[in-house]
Specification:
The chain contains 19 helices and no strands.
Length: 445
């Protein structure tokens, strides 16, 4: 197995959970030359080949995923003629088998190393989409989507923990803030989420089966890339430490705070699929504009993630970026709440929803790289895979509970709904302020 290019051995880093680690990592080494038109591209090209592989395969993985999944509900209800409750059940099972089982993928990553877990995830995705292409009964469709979801539960925690680990090493070797590396990873994923539905829409002219088989081709390419370039790494948890992983996370108050704050963000983000469609339909009489708002969100991340993270690196620490992002998200819901009594309609009625999407996306660009960059400082490296998986699983559980709680208010709408939704990220921001920190990040006053 050919070893992928690695950065030099890391210099000493701040102790986990320390003041320096919690609020200065983002600002380390940010004095660069003046921005240029091609700066973002140059920054990506300057990254080590292995980190570019991880970001590139995240893009490809999302292209294959979003080329199929946005059109699954219509295929099940229209072509296969399934009842609405069955379609909802299938989609819910897919989400559970993915988000809810991230912690399993993270634990397996710590036990066996990232390479076999990533390869297994790719193999299961290939099998799942191949199965879905030819599935014609309810049972076979459920089996296929469960396989697809579990594949992501293996792939994503392994790749995310490996990216976080490499970002810390690259930060120590080059001075490039780890959050900047994680921002590249996030932007690559959003680019895939934007390109995938466009590719799927083109392939649907041929048929849903063609979109599934195109997804198979993409995942075969991802599998081949990781098989060739991802280095083998022994599992870092000997037998006596396996049971200690969960115990270590529970005993880390800093990790618990980050996981809960991140979960508040995901509860808010899920409103793009729950409360925003109802608001768009109220304002315009249909949901036709919803796709444009989703495209706006993806384009903002693709074009703005690196500049926003670079700015935050000069002005904010990791904890401050996390708090600020949640406050910006809360502001988006406040804007909609304030507009409710005005009863705006038509194009003007879309304005509050558009502002919500912009502010929610801006908050996402601030807080997601910061939250992921904090995790390596709050847990032992042996448990990093488990921690990344738990971050998503805890958040997924909060989304399940939060969506059930806010779903009852969605039908009523009004100021109460949007006020409650604004309170969720605000609570996350107040919680994130409890993270220990000290000193000041470069340029922060």
């Amino acid at each position: 197995m050919k070893e992928a290019t690695r950065p030099p051995a890391p210099a000493p880093v701040p102790a986990p959970g320390s003041a320096q680690a919690a609020d200065t990592s983002l600002a380390t080494g940010t004095r660069r030359t003046a921005p240029s038109r091609w700066r973002a591209l140059a920054e990506v090209r300057a990254l080590p080949p292995y980190i570019r592989l991880l970001a590139g395969t995240q893009l490809a993985f999302n292209v294959g995923f979003f080329a199929v999944l946005p059109y699954l509900a219509q295929h099940l209800g229209g072509v296969l003629g399934m009842a609405g409750w069955v379609v909802g059940l299938v989609l819910g099972l897919r989400t559970f088998s993915q988000q809810g089982l991230f912690v399993v993928g993270g634990a397996l990553t710590d036990r066996f190393g990232p390479r076999p877990v990533v390869l297994a995830g790719c193999g299961l995705r290939i099998a799942g989409f191949g199965w879905l292409a030819f599935a014609g009964s309810t049972g076979s469709v459920i089996g296929a989507v469960l396989l697809i979801g579990f594949a992501a539960a293996l792939f994503s925690p392994a790749v995310e923990s490996e990216t976080a680990r490499e970002a810390v090493r690259y930060e120590a070797a080059s001075g490039t803030p780890r959050a900047q590396v994680l921002a590249v990873f996030s932007a690559a994923g959003q680019a895939g989420a934007f390109i995938g539905p466009l590719l799927g829409a083109l392939l649907l002219g041929v048929g849903f089966r063609a979109a599934c088989l195109a997804g198979v081709v993409v995942f075969v390419g991802v599998l081949a890339g990781h098989w060739r370039l991802m280095p083998a790494r022994e599992g870092r948890q000997p037998k006596e430490h396996r049971r200690g992983g969960v115990r270590a996370l529970v005993r880390s108050p800093g990790f618990g705070i980050v996981a809960l704050a991140y979960g508040c963000y995901l509860v808010s983000y899920n409103q793009l699929y729950l409360s925003l469609p109802a608001e768009v339909e109220r304002a315009t009489g249909s949901q036709a504009a919803l796709g444009w708002l989703f495209a706006l969100s993806s384009l903002l991340v693709v074009c703005g993630q690196l500049p926003v993270t670079r700015w935050a690196g000069r002005r904010l620490g990791l904890r401050t970026a996390l708090v600020s992002g949640l406050l910006v998200v809360a502001l988006g819901f406040v804007v909609v709440a304030v507009s409710v009594p005005l009863q705006l309609r038509g194009a003007g009625g879309l304005a509050p929803g558009a502002v919500l999407v912009v502010l929610l996306t801006l908050g996402q660009m601030l807080l997601v790289p910061a939250a992921r960059a904090l995790v390596p400082d709050l847990v032992d490296d042996r448990h990093l895979g488990l921690a990344m998986g738990a971050l998503s699983s805890v958040s997924g559980l909060l989304v399940l509970v939060g969506s059930a709680a806010t779903g009852g208010l969605t039908a009523r709408g009004g100021v109460l709904l949007w006020g409650v939704l604004a309170a969720v990220p605000l609570a996350g921001a107040l919680l994130a302020r409890c993270l220990r920190h000290g000193g000041r990040a470069a340029g922060y006053t």
